[in-house]
Design brief:
By secondary structure, this protein is mostly beta strands. The chain is built from no helices and eleven strands. A hairpin with a 6-residue loop joins strand 4 and strand 5.
C-alpha cells in the first residue's frame, strides 16, 4: 500500500505564491512517477505538473512559466512551487503517483489540498 500526504494549500491573493508538498510512503519502488493534478468545481481533473518515469517533466499549458515541480528522492517527496497565482488557479490539488511493478502499473492519489486565490 502507498500513502500520499499533501500539505501547503491555503488562501492567497492573486499574484502571490504557495508551495505544496507531497510525501509518499509505503511500497514505493524505483520505477515511479509523482506529480500534481487539480480539479476546480464543475471541471475535470487536469494535469498541473508531473515527473515522468524517465525522469523528465510535463507541465500543463495553463501553468507553464508560473509553476515548478521539484523533488527530494531521499524523502520521497515532490513539491509544487506556485508563483503569480491567479483566481483561476483555485482548485483542489491532488498528489499522484504511478508505480510500475511486475509489468503492471498502479496509481495512487492523495486526499487533496485546497488552494484558493482571491482577486
Amino acid at each position: 500500500q502507498v500513502q500520499l500526504v499533501e500539505s501547503g494549500g491555503g488562501l492567497v491573493q492573486a499574484g502571490g505564491s504557495l508551495r505544496l508538498s507531497c510525501a509518499a510512503s509505503g511500497n514505493i519502488f524505483s520505477a515511479n512517477a509523482m506529480g500534481w493534478y487539480r480539479q476546480a468545481p464543475g471541471k475535470q481533473r487536469e494535469l498541473v505538473a508531473t515527473f515522468t518515469r524517465d525522469g523528465g517533466t510535463r507541465t500543463g499549458d495553463s501553468v507553464k512559466g508560473r509553476f515548478t515541480i521539484s523533488r527530494d528522492n531521499a524523502k520521497n517527496t515532490v513539491y509544487l512551487q506556485m508563483n503569480s497565482l491567479k483566481p483561476e488557479d483555485t482548485a483542489v490539488y491532488y498528489c499522484n503517483i504511478y508505480i510500475w511493478i511486475l509489468g503492471t502499473v498502479r496509481d495512487y492519489w492523495g486526499q487533496g489540498t485546497q488552494v484558493t486565490v482571491s482577486s
